[in-house]
Design goal:
Elements (H helix, E strand, L loop, with lengths): L1 E6 L5 H5 L9 E8 L6 E8 L1 H18 L2 E9 L1 E4 L3 E9 L2 H18 L2 E7 L4 E3 L4 H8 L4
Parallel strand pairs: 1-4
Antiparallel strand pairs: 2-6, 3-5, 3-7, 4-6, 7-8
Helix pairs in contact: 2-3, 3-4
C-alpha cells in the first residue's frame, strides 16, 4: 500500500492510519510535523513545484521501500498557508517488525528535509516575512545515511 499526497487541505492522522489494513502488520510507525509558534510566527507559507515535489516524494517512498521491509507507506505534505498548530507533514509506514518501521520513519524525515523541493516562509505576527533556509543539522542528518 502506498499513498503519496502533496495537498493544501488539512488531514486527519487517525483516518490516514486506517489505510494500513494488512493482516501481516506487526508495526506502524509515524511522524507528524506541526507548525510551531516560534519567533512570533503566525503561519508558514509553503511553496512547491507540483511535478518536481511529487516526483521527489515518490522517489523517497521508493527508497524507503527498497531500504526497509515495509508493507505500506504514507507521505503527506501540505502547501499553502498553514497556521500555528496545524500539521505540515505526515509520514507513516507499516512493517512486520518495529525496527524497520522506526528506522524507515527516521530515514524518510531526514531525506525529506533535504531531497524534496519545498520552500518555507515564516509569516510573523508583526506582518514581516522571512524565508527559512536549510539547516546544516538537516543536511548532516541526511548525509549520515550514506546512500
Amino acid at each position: 500500500m502506498r499513498y503519496i499526497s502533496l495537498q493544501s487541505d488539512i488531514f486527519d492522522i487517525g483516518s490516514e492510519l486506517t489505510k494500513f489494513n494488512d493482516d501481516g502488520l506487526g508495526a506502524i510507525s509515524s511522524f507528524t510535523g506541526i507548525v510551531r509558534a516560534e519567533n512570533k510566527v503566525e503561519a508558514l507559507m509553503i511553496e512547491h513545484h507540483p511535478i518536481m515535489s511529487v516526483a521527489a516524494l515518490n522517489d523517497l517512498a521508493d527508497r524507503c521501500e527498497t531500504k526497509y521491509d515495509l508493507r505500506g507507506i504514507i507521505i503527506i505534505h501540505r502547501y499553502g498557508i498553514l497556521r500555528v498548530g496545524q500539521p505540515i507533514v505526515f509520514v507513516a509506514v507499516s512493517s512486520a517488525h518495529r525496527i524497520d518501521a522506526m528506522k524507515a520513519i527516521e530515514y524518510a524525515m531526514d531525506r525529506l528535509k533535504t531531497d524534496v523541493p519545498l520552500w518555507k516562509k515564516e509569516i510573523r505576527q508583526d506582518g514581516s516575512e522571512h524565508w527559512i533556509e536549510q539547516k546544516l543539522s538537516d543536511v548532516a542528518a541526511s548525509q549520515s545515511w550514506n546512500d
